[in-house]
Structure to design on (449 residues):
């Protein structure tokens, strides 16, 4: 897809019109994802909008990506001659306006009017402002009927849906696709007294120990944020570090550690942690997070694939956790842009990287120590297949099966081979917002003593 240029070359007609800046930013964020050059969240980093407009822009862009398959199908149907060529940001303007009309509690008239203004404010889109008006009005007038004709799996790219059907069966693939259409809850990992914090925050204590809230406002405003009582971490993302068991007093290496969710867990559990990541910027966030939480770790900026590991690997560790970079297809509920910015080719590339990383782990673990490998991917090449290969080549390691008690008894999350495999469709709940978890894979291996 071509990358629409932003900001528009002319200031949008009606600059200062309420809500226009939020729509412009939402369209810019979506254009960035479709142009394959930006993660959705990064579009909001330097935005100089008022908090309310910023929140609205985020919401519009988020739902645009979450329901991009549906919206794209509708636009294809209604734009009889296809998306006009060389129309600049028109596509992103239409997608974000359709998202408002179909899925948000925003007056349709405002969504249409502001989209037309945005189109008029751009050299290349302005010739199509009438078309934008007509198409968006059609969506507004026929929304129920239009939506009824869209298949439920439309919001998962077909290459990914096919993979999931092949890996997990049609019914599970359908349930995962349905789960990803819903904006998820906020999950927290709490330093101490999870039950007390669940009550104080009006949330729910999950069987895995995480606290779950139906909250989509600013995180910093929640009680306990400033005091460092908890951090944001999906319930599934909190499970791999739990597989290390009691780490109090142990030396643990957290590799690929930033922004530090797992480092914080292991440090809070009383381990001496070495947190390694190659990204200085991401490690800065890790440092800030640990400071707020009043937790300590030795933080090392290093490439774990580099030849010289001596800078941080003075002697083998009691336990190592490798949270390898991955395709992140398990996090689509929280980052819906991931679905549309990845391709099947990305999976092969990250699987190769993971294989090389795992290949370096053997020497880092003490005899008798544990290695936990995890990824937030739903793809078996990044999970089960990596572990099978690692165990084949490292006879001194044995899989230590994950037990139901390790993960609070959640059902359906342990593979027949004893590995952790969470799916977005697990942890069902009558309220879809309170259901589900990220797709994570983890395997626990012990080095023979
Ligand atoms: C999935 S994220 C880690 C999330 C983190 N463990 C947490 O729980 O918050 C993967 C991380 O791997 C890091 N990374 C990628 N390649 C690396 C390498 N060769 N050496 C060290 N870190 C690497 C990235 O910078 C990124 O921070």
């Amino acid at each position: 897809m071509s990358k629409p240029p932003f900001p528009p070359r002319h200031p949008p007609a009606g600059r200062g019109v309420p809500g226009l800046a939020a729509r412009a930013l939402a369209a810019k964020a979506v254009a960035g994802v479709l142009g394959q050059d930006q993660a959705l969240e990064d579009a909001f980093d330097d935005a100089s909008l008022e908090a309310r407009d910023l929140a609205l822009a985020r919401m519009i862009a988020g739902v645009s990506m979450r329901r991009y398959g549906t919206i794209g199908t509708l636009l294809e149907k209604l734009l009889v001659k296809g998306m006009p060529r060389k129309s600049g940001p028109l596509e992103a303007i239409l997608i974000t306006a359709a998202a408002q009309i179909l899925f948000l509690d925003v007056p349709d008239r405002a969504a249409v009017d502001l989209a037309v203004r945005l189109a008029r404010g751009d050299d290349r889109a302005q010739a199509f402002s009438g078309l934008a008006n007509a198409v968006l009005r059609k969506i507004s007038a026929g929304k129920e009927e239009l939506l009824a004709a869209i298949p439920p799996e439309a919001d998962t790219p077909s290459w990914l849906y096919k993979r999931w059907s092949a890996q997990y069966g049609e019914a599970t693939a359908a349930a995962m696709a349905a789960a990803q259409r819903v904006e998820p809850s906020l999950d927290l990992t709490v330093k101490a007294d999870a039950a007390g914090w669940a009550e104080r925050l009006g949330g729910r204590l999950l069987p895995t120990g995480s606290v779950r809230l139906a909250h989509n406002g600013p995180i910093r405003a929640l009680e306990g944020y400033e005091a460092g009582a908890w951090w944001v971490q999906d319930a599934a993302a909190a499970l791999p570090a739990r597989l290390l068991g009691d780490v109090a007093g142990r030396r643990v290496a957290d590799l690929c550690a930033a922004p530090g969710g797992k480092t914080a867990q292991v440090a809070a559990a009383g381990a001496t942690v070495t947190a390694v990541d190659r990204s200085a910027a991401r490690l800065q966030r890790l440092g800030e997070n640990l400071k707020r939480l009043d937790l300590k770790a030795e933080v090392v900026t290093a490439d774990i694939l580099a030849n010289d590991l001596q800078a941080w690997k003075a002697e083998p560790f009691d336990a190592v956790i490798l949270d390898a970079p991955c395709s992140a297809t398990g996090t689509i509920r929280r980052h819906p842009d991931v679905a549309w910015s990845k391709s099947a080719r990305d999976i092969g590339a990250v699987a190769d990287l993971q294989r090389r990383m795992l290949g370096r782990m053997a020497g880092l673990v003490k005899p008798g120590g544990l290695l936990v490998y995890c990824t937030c991917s739903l793809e078996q090449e990044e999970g089960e297949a990596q572990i099978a290969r690692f165990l084949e080549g490292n006879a001194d390691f044995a899989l230590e099966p994950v037990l139901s008690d390790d993960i609070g008894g959640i059902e359906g999350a342990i593979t027949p081979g004893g590995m952790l495999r969470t799916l977005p469709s697990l942890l069902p709940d009558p309220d879809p917002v309170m259901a589900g978890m990220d797709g994570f894979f983890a395997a626990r291996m012990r080095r023979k003593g």
Remarks:
- The pocket of S-adenosylmethionine is lined by residues 256-262, 277-279, 282, 303-305, 323, 325 (CB under 6 Å).
- The longest strand covers residues 365-375.
